[in-house]
Specification:
Length: about 210
């Protein structure tokens, strides 16, 4: 922070002063050209250019004064601000009184306990039944594009029980037959309805 106030601001002030002199020179040059113009239009343009350059010179002077003022104020503030001094921490020790207790010896009289006359019952561990792994049922999904009929028996002319939509989940049963040049699979719906569907219209899911 101190570098900004001590280095950058004076540089900016110097640049502003140089810009002021540059615009003053351009203003005088424009006034000189205005006096030498043969026509009123050229003189008026030269005078306007001189006025603009004078305004720019005043603005650059104001900037230079601002930068110099900020630099002076910041340097005074840095001189006034005290530098922090590190004070060593004082370690204080407080004496704590420790109370000592003297143990008192107590006389313990041993009493004889009667011996048990009957043996204690022993617990016998009973074997737990072994868990049997039940196989998960095989499932299938209707995959025909629109759906398929669940029929009462294999064949294309048997009774239609239910229209199974595309993506319906089914349980695959053991029955499987070939009728009307189609292979039929016995299935069961999630609602418990049992029937037959053409095997080519379902996809058996891998267990």
């Amino acid at each position: 922070m101190a570098v900004i106030f001590n280095v950058v601001l004076p540089i900016l002030a110097g640049v502003s002063i140089l810009a002021m002199f540059y615009f003053i020179w351009r203003a005088f040059n424009a006034r000189y050209k205005a006096a030498r113009q043969p026509y009123n239009v050229g003189r008026q343009e030269a005078r306007q250019s001189a006025q603009v350059n004078l305004v720019r010179a005043v603005f650059a002077l104001i900037l230079a004064l601002i930068f110099l003022g900020v630099t002076g104020v910041s340097s005074q503030m840095l001189e006034i601000m005290p530098e922090p001094t590190a004070t060593p921490a004082q370690r204080t020790r407080t004496a704590t009184s420790e109370s000592t207790t003297v143990p008192t010896a107590t006389k313990i009289t041993a009493t004889s306990e009667p011996s048990p006359t009957s043996p204690l019952p022993t617990s016998s561990a009973t074997p737990l039944p072994s868990a049997t792994n039940t196989p998960e049922p095989v499932t299938a999904t209707v995959s025909s594009g629109v759906g398929v009929w669940l029929r009462e028996a294999p064949g294309t002319e048997t009774v239609q029980l239910e229209w199974l939509l595309e993506g319906t989940s089914l349980f695959v049963l053991a029955g499987q037959e070939t009728v009307d040049d189609l292979q039929w699979q016995q299935v069961q719906t999630e609602g418990g309805q049992t029937g037959w569907v053409a095997l080519e219209f379902i996809v058996v899911n891998e267990p």
